Write the structure tokens for this entry.
Amino acid sequence: MGTFTKSFGAAGGYVAGSKALIDRLRLRGHGSVYAESMTPAVLTQVMASMASIMGLAPSTSSALEVAQQHPGPAHPSQLPAWMDLPLSLRDGSEGRMRLRRLAFNARYLSRALVKLGFITYGHTDSPIVPLLLFNPGKMSAFSRMMRARKTPIVVVVVAYPATPLVTTRVRFCVSAAHTKDDIDTVLRACDEIGEVLDVKHLPGERWPLERIMNSAAELVNMEDD
């Protein structure tokens, strides 16, 4: 499953699977039976976003040739005739650069928080990084202290009933537009506030913040445990 909202700037989402699975979802799923289909404008936004990420195949390529490349560029016929993407998007170079930057930001933030002693959920490649606070009473304090810093940091906090009562968390969402300095600013704030609120509960070796900031490449390239 995936979303078309945050990732594509559109609405809705998708499910990919075997034909048997998709047929069953279409037949039995409430969303398929009762929900309305995506509007043409939303579909155009989704296809344009995908083409901006993956690039466009040469106009001389057939739709079948493009479909056989997975993952690969989109076929020009999938975009409206009036839509003309810049060259950096058409050839996929900007998309590849943004994906690399996003992967770096996600891995760096997730693995650095672990080295600071925080417990996080999710895969290290995910740009959404949940940091466990556990105590619901510390949730609002964490949010206020982050926002009150010299460089205000606005975070999303999640608690019951969206999560179990004892797994209250803060959720960081990174993008390709964030720089390493941005991530370092967040890490410094988390390090200081985590000590004050006593939310560093991960056992094992911890790294000082300066070592983490100086070892970003090592953290990003290390194997998951």
User: Anything to note?
Assistant: The first helix runs from residue 19 to 28. DSSP finds ten helices and five strands in the chain. The beta strands are 2-3, 13-14, 128-134, 156-158, 168-173.
